[in-house]
Design goal:
The protein is α/β, with parallel strands linked by helices. Helix content is about 45%, strand content about 15%.
Length: about 250
């Protein structure tokens, strides 16, 4: 029976992905900063473990407790929306600690067991902001773009050992807790000078033409984990798919 470790399972994409893999018969190690009861079904194939991807000791503890796994899904992340000028650098660093360095740290920690077995797959969840430049998301985009380049390069070096690296790129999901994992309010990141610029953007966010559902992302992660074709990127949701199809080449 195959096992998957998924980060950031307290809500949204991570929670739905954990449910999906469990329904497909996998053993699931669902991790979150502060584990809560009742989010996932009770099962001998499902464990909920605490994990802070910004702390090396937490990563080591969860991997020791998990035992051998076949797939790592790096989903944990925090968002930031607002004018870059008004975004404190302390918060930019916080975003990178989770979205970028946390992903890298988890990946580096799992590679030895994958390499030794010459099998395994790392799936990194980024965002459709990597597919097209979007306003008021400069810091967030940078943190996710870094993982796009990281994963592309990693897929080559790990491929030598039979280990795969993949990207899942979700579109806009207004039901997800994109900016709730932070103590910085959106209102504080829109100075008066940016108000006229930001207003129509937030209006568009409020009434999107297409949205990405949690189930779209869970299915894309499932496809990425099981793909052996060499495909690197898996856009998730109708809006992300449309953006990916519009890219040149």
């Amino acid at each position: 029976m195959k096992a998957v470790l998924i980060t950031g399972c307290s809500s949204g994409y991570g929670l739905e992905t954990a449910r999906h893999f469990h329904a497909q018969g996998w053993t699931v190690i669902a991790t979150m900063r502060n584990p809560r009861e009742g989010l996932l079904p009770k099962s001998d194939r499902l464990r909920v473990l605490p994990l802070d991807v910004t702390r090396s000791e937490s990563i080591a503890a969860v991997l020791e407790a998990s035992g051998p796994i076949d797939a790592l899904v790096n989903n944990a992340g925090i968002g930031v929306v607002g004018a870059f000028e008004a975004t404190p650098m302390s918060h930019v660093r916080k975003v990178f600690e989770t979205n970028t360095f946390g992903v890298m740290a988890m990946t580096q920690a799992i590679i030895p067991q994958f390499r030794a077995r010459r099998s395994g797959v790392v799936v990194n969840v980024t965002s459709s902001v990597t597919l097209a430049a979007m306003p008021l998301a400069a810091a967030y985009t940078a943190s996710k773009q870094a993982i796009e380049g990281f994963t592309g390069s990693l897929s080559h070096e790990l491929g030598h050992f039979g280990v795969r690296a993949k990207l899942v790129e979700p579109g806009y999901g207004p039901t997800t807790r994109f900016a709730q994992n932070t103590n910085v309010r959106i209102e504080d990141l829109i100075p008066e000078a940016y108000a006229a610029f930001a207003a129509p953007i937030f209006e568009a966010f409020a009434k999107p033409a297409m949205v990405t559902k949690e189930t779209d992302v869970a299915e894309a992660v499932w496809q990425a984990v099981n793909d052996v074709s060499g495909q690197l990127r898996f856009p998730a949701g109708p809006d992300a798919i449309a953006l990916a199809q519009a890219l040149p080449g």
